[in-house]
Specification:
- The chain is an all-alpha fold.
- It is elongated, with a radius of gyration of 31 Å.
- The chain has 11 helices and no strands.
- The termini are far apart.
Length: 214
Amino acid sequence: MSYSKWILTVFLIIPSSWTRVSRLNTAIEAAERSYAEANYEQSVTDHLVLVNEFEYKSPELSFNLGLSHHYSDKMDEAQTWYDQVTQSPNKMLVSFAYNQSGVILGNKKEYEAALSKFQSALIKDPTNEQARYNYEMLARWLQRDEERKNQDQNKPEPSEFAKRKKAEADRLVEQFRFKDALNLMQEAMTQDETVAAYQDFMTTLQEVVEIDEN
């Protein structure tokens, strides 16, 4: 038997499972590399090779796919992969997935749903400081937004007198006479309670005056 035929024979008897393992390892390395290099569109492609060609599954792979889709601006796909991660026994990873889902929902202005995701993230891992920050900031914003809505609903309709005083104050502001404008509005308030319709304007004047005086 010649040397070349012997080499061929050796290759033919290598188990096919060895070849599959080698290809799988190569695919894993490619996915890790594109993800580490923040090449997220390529990362999506490389990770999907693992899923579709090798039927490789893990919570970590799903999370990486979620992030890769997220940073590729493919939010619906990202949400799907994050949802898969939430079935994992790894509480820390689940917490991260809930937090990322909350970010997506927040960007969609689905604030109550986002708040629920951040809360779920904290339930799974109370040490997730990013989720805690997101939860507290969104909760405060929603509370302030509700307060603003209530204030707007309770604002009186300004009378003609109130409208004239507001116009006078606007002219003073144009001259940078903020304190005079504030005094004018405060005096008008003692004469006509509907001047309260311009409370936001008066609050801003008060802040500007305090800054000038400091």
